Amino acid sequence: MPVAPAVVRARIFRFDPETDQGPRYDTIEIPYQPHMRVLDVLDQAVDSCGLGVGYRYFCGIKRCGMCGVSVNGKPVLACWEAASAEMTIEPLPKLPVIRDLAVDRTIFEGATVGLHPVLERHEPYEGFPEPLTHVEMHDAFKLMNCIECYVCSTSCPAVPDQGPHEFKGRDFVGPGTLVQIAKAALHPRDGRDRSGELELASLDNCMSCGRCEEVCPNSIPILSGAIAPLRARATKGPRGLARLPMEFSENVRANGNVNSAALFLRTRGWLRTLASAPMLIRMFFHRKTRLFPRFSAEARRSIDAVFSITSSGERK
Predict the structure, then answer these.
(1) Domains defined along the chain, listed by start
(2) How far apart are CA 121 and CA 142, in angstroms?
(3) For residue 127, what pLDDT band results from cuts at 50, 70 and 90?
(4) What does pLDDT average to over the chain?
(5) Tell me, which GO biological process terms does this entry list (predicted)?
(6) Which of 108, 94, 106, 93 is nearest to 13 (CA)?
(7) Model pTM?
(8) In angstroms, rounded to a whole number, what is the distance separating the alpha carbons of residues 230 and 286?
(9) How many angstroms separate the CA atoms of 277 and 259, rounded?
């Protein structure tokens, strides 16, 4: 059993954009209490030490998702993270500071709302009570523990440093928003084609590094339970870039490598492919692509090997 510290020493980030030239840190030392959390340290900083530090919370029991802070460089929920002997408490990264530890979550919340993460029925409502089996709800149900704290999104290396300002097809919206979309998309009664929203979310910017799952306070399987199923839906969608992953896979299967001309034609159509002809020609002369399929025995062996590898991966 680890020995509990006698004293907690905390460096607390302080900054008011309206009055301060730059941030500073105030340091406090308080007696350690059994089961002390970071939120308890902040409460004592105000009540016992007289610091007028600004921070946000509501429930205190890991339900509201409002108390996110960064402790020793790791985004956490203040109400749930255990206090340690030495702590540096800072605001969540990638978000504008309102004051001290309170941040403006509008960037992530706006991206979430803008991508329509609600159930959309295409079949008539059968009436209440509506029968839904455990098997039908299993995939969506495990995402219901998300409390929209956006701790995962602020820790994601694929999210821009200032958040997803240009989320419509340019900036990656982050795993927190994708979980909200997946909750609706995986519901057995949802009939909406979400490939368009997933294009706007820049889903392919996810690097599958797993950082989001490491920091999630509710241990949600974000990669396997939300992002992977959304990728499967994106590849089957009818809209532009949503077809690219599937066409890329089929292109490699058919050619043993990437045939850019065929890939452009399948995903962009004749007119846009012709407009891209100068780029394709430059790629060809720089040996970055092939314009025509290969028919040699070596090419056939390469194609067979790629097909075997991809088929094995899909079975797993």
Answers:
(1) 7-103 (3.10.20.30), 106-238 (1.10.1060.10), 243-315 (no CATH)
(2) 21
(3) confident
(4) 84
(5) respiratory electron transport chain; tricarboxylic acid cycle
(6) 93
(7) 0.75
(8) 35
(9) 13
